[in-house]
Amino acid sequence: MPGMPKKIYDFGLAAAFCLSFFVAPAHAAKRVALVIGNNAYENVPALQKAVNDSEAISRELAKLGFDVVSAENVGRRAMSRALVELESKIESGDTALIYFAGHGFAVDGTNYLLPVDVPAAGPGEEGLVRDASFAANGLSDRLQEKGAATVILILDACRDNPFAQAGKRSIGLTRGLSRMDPAEGMFVLF
Hints:
By secondary structure, this protein is α/β, with parallel strands linked by helices. The chain has helices at residues 6-22, 50-63, 76-89, 126-132, 136-145, and strands at residues 31-37, 67-72, 95-107, 110-113, 134-135, 150-158, 186-189.
């Protein structure tokens, strides 16, 4: 696509190709999506490309027939509202998708998606991250509880530790997100 950075174009094509397998037309079930792009982090390093990626994915999903809820640079409260808006659109048998571009972080094997107002956290303060963020598996559980037959999570999370401080200890010993064991009807793409 002219004018679109290669990374976004390649990821968008890969995502669209993968999604075509998951969302082949069946009956009258709807396709709904929440697309979040967070660049403007307040207390951890800001990102530069997450919003651009989310905008490209929103366009591709709309072309595939998804009813897309978009959110950019959202704090916890706004991210929660966007999730509730997505949930209100889900009916039994629908396909629900969440695409998240921004900082993601694993704490004790659970993946968390970080809103832009996540507080800075140091060693021993993992609870701050848990309380201020969204557990990825909790999001998928919520969508399945609403009746979604298929849940797709696409986590385009930065692999750097957003809590690292030069010359100091920080929470988290690994980079990136932890492996997830999806439930039946759930697909996870990293």
